[in-house]
Amino acid sequence: MGCVRLVNPVTLPTIISWLTYSSLLSMMALGVTLLYRTTKVANFAHASLVTSGAYVAYSVVVVLHPNPYVGVPLAFALVGGLGLLLFYGVLEPMRRRHSSTVMLMIATLAFDIVLFGVLNILADYLASAYFVPSRNILLSASDFTFLGQPGIFFVAVGVLSLCSVVLYFLLNFTTLGIALRASMENSSLAQAIGVNVTLMLAISWFAAGGLAGVSGALLPMWTLVNPNTGTVLLASMFCASIVGGLDEIYGAVLGGFLLGFVDVVGTSVLASNVGAWIAFYEPAVPLVVLCATLILAPRGLAGFLARRRK
Amino acid sequence: MSSILKPSVIAIIIIALLVGVGIGYVVVPAPAPPKTTLPSTIPIGVMVTLTGSFSSYGARAEAAAKVANTQINNYVKSLGIPTTFNFLYEDTETSPPSVALTDLQTLYTQGVKVVVGGMTSGEMAAIDSFADTNHIVVIDGTSTAGRASVAPPGDYEFRDLPAGGAEGAALTAAIMSKGYKNVAMITASDTYTLSIRQAFKNAWLAAGGNLVADVNYSYPATTDFTVQLNTLQAAVAPLMAQNKSVAIFANMWEDVATMLAQAKSSNSPLLSLTWFGNDNFAQDNTIISNAGAAVVNQVKLVSVVFAAPLTPTHAELNTAVNASIGQVPDIYACATYDAAWIAALSILTAGQYNGTLIKTAVPTIAGQYYGATGNTALNSLGDRNTMDMDYWAVVSGTWQEVATYSSIDQSVTWLMAV
User: Fold this and answer.
1) Which of A105, A144, A218, A280 could pair covalently with B216 via S-S, beta carbons 3.0-4.6 A apart?
2) CB pair distance less than 8 Å for B265 and A150
3) pLDDT (tens digit per residue) in A270-292
């Protein structure tokens, strides 16, 4: 008597949704963290880089009609190239002129706006040249199922794991990785000992762009994509990156999964037990988690774990 | 006396009269055209969504407005009125609604006092204050949210489609007529869908229906519908366990496809229910291709849409728009076409390009006009009075008309089993 019985909506489908959503979000956040680590710039163009990945993959589907996953490697390469374009075409010339970090950040915002325009042009071109819908793109109907679960679940988790492992080995067990880490820690000192810092930065921008491209290419298998989808997700990407901790690359993955858990599982539990009205405030969840995490762990989850290890 | 009436004299008189008539016809100038104080070129703004997620609607509305512009100028020329209507197009970009306000301000600086459009209720709400302050008459063919959420009654905004109350009543009638007493509703947080939510809620509860869930979600920020699916499932589960009939009302936009696809991924029991929808996605084939025909077939997605009778004007518009962009105009394009004609006829009737006078003329012209969507008589609020509706559902993988709704007696006639 007097005991409140909680409704438990945490079923297998909810967990699958959490893992899928978190994997995609973590991939996006990985790029944000990587760039912040290397250049100390919050890259606002990451929004449109993610959407570019989606449109590259969709263009492949429209033109060649293959399985939607076929476009993922091309999205990695082309959007990585866009990252390089942003670096060599905009940021590096500004850096040489000693522009402040704030100026560089605003430049990424400007690049995002230009890219958003280009994406709209591409969408209109696809619609007029191929007579296909080029907005509100959803490709999940073409997805495969395995063990009764959607293919995007396996692919998203698998690709995130692969990217994390590759990044880990690259940064910790290769000469290139040592040079990259040296550039991240102290670029002046790295340059003094012969590291080509500009090249290292370029590699970071390519990798971050590639990660954005891959996550974007997988996005239409899970949710509706428009030219502004990246912008809609930008707050969540940054929250995942900051919650995880900007000091460690793997922090983005921690942040993505924590954010996804609170968003999908936490809000479901609250909506089922407190009231359906909670569902309306779901987009506010990342910001609440961000505030709570930064109060408890100002350097993010990765910083908190690192401090405990010491 | 008899000498005067000689045949030769009569013949001379007749010939003289005929010659006189001929000379008079040549010499006397043609009658002057009707007096008018209208400028030689009248700019009319057309605000449509040419980019963003509503761009396909915008393209059809733009094509319909262009057809209207040509026809109006031909009509004016045939009357000998020395005026040309020049339609100026602005892209409202779908989102955010504030773009529409910027567009209206741009048009105003170009001397525009009459506007056709925009294309969402949010846009109409965003431009209302500026239009009223500057006496700009706005005639819209797309917005159907409740008047209260768009503009005050009787101001400078007119809408030639009925407001959401009619849709709420039509949806209630359809769901009730299929024997459902329980409905779980999910609503996108948008001006239009929130208005439909209220209209449906009022009609449904007044009809004695039971609303078992009323879930709102943030639009377009929500990309994962797990929370919404879980909440709806929790609400309908007790009814399903007791074998009580319950339906879903998806008061959403195109993202209903995402929710359906994610419901399919999670084998949601909600897919065993019949889903009803608003006019946002009725007849939208991308919903079927995005979510997959099998899943949409399963839930039917019975959606209401305004019915435009195939009047001669409608048929002519179909041909012209099809020739122009290869598409048949939807109800919103037809209503935009009518809005353009009502705008032009109101200006001609007012005799001056003066917003206040044109506003006075609009209700009378709309009441007399019979265009591509039928008669466009407005109510005292400035919205279209009534309109019949059709219900479309996905049957055998395609959208098919399954029922009709009479706005006169609020009755539903089912054309096929759903």
Assistant:
1) A280
2) yes
3) 888 888 888 888 888 878 888 88
Residue in A7, A16, A149 nearest the CB of B234: A7
Omega prior to B96 cis, within 30 of 0: yes
DSSP helix, strand, coil percent of chain B (3-state; round to 5): 45, 20, 35
- Kindly report the nearest CA distance between residue B197 and chain A, in angstroms: 14
Please tell me which of the candidates A133, A137, A264 has its beta carbon nearest to residue B226.
Answer: A264
Chain B CA closest to residue A120: B51
Interface contact A185, partner B, CB < 8 A:
no
Q: From CA A215, how far away is CA A278, in angstroms rounded?
A: 28
A281 touches chain B (CB under 8 A): yes
Q: Which residues on A lie below 8 Å from B264 (Cβ)? A: 140
The whole-angstrom separation of Cα A295 and Cα A273 is 27
Question: Minimal Cα–Cα distance from B311 to chain A, Å?
Answer: 29
Contact yes or no for A120 and B224 at CB 8 A: no
Give the end-to-end CA distance of chain B in Å, rounded to a whole number: 95
Report the gap between the CA of A182 and the closest CA in chain B (Å). Answer: 38
Q: Which helix (H) or strand (E) holds A51?
A: helix A46-64
Q: Give A-chain residues touching B252 at CB under 8 angstroms.
A: none
Fold of B41-163+309-375: Rossmann fold (3.40.50)
Asked whether B359 and B135 are in contact (CB, 8 A), the reply is yes
Report the complex ipTM. Answer: 0.84
Digitized pLDDT (tens) for each residue of chain B, 418 residues in all: 445 567 777 778 788 887 777 776 666 655 555 556 899 999 999 999 887 767 778 889 999 999 999 999 999 999 999 999 999 999 998 777 889 999 999 999 999 999 999 888 889 999 999 999 999 999 999 998 888 889 999 999 999 999 877 889 999 999 999 999 999 999 999 888 998 999 999 999 999 999 999 999 998 889 899 999 999 999 999 999 999 999 999 999 989 999 999 999 889 999 999 999 998 888 888 889 899 999 999 999 999 989 888 889 999 999 999 998 888 898 999 999 999 999 999 999 999 999 999 999 999 999 999 999 999 999 999 999 888 899 999 999 999 999 999 988 889 999 998 8
Please name the residue of chain A whose CA is at the shortest distance from the CA of residue B266. Answer: A13
For residue A276, give the nearest of B213, B226, B254 by CB distance: B213
Radius of gyration of chain A (CA): 20
Helix (H) or strand (E) holding B19: helix B7-27
User: Domain coordinates of chain A in residue numbers?
Assistant: 12-309
Query: Which CATH number, 3.20.20.70, 3.40.50.2300, 1.20.1260.10, 3.30.390.50, labels domain B165-307+389-414?
Result: 3.40.50.2300
Which pTM value belongs to this model?
0.79
Stretch(es) of chain B classified as CATH 3.40.50.2300: 41-163+309-375, 165-307+389-414
Q: Which CATH class is domain A12-309?
A: mainly alpha
Q: How many Å from the N-terminal Cα to the C-terminal Cα in chain A?
A: 48
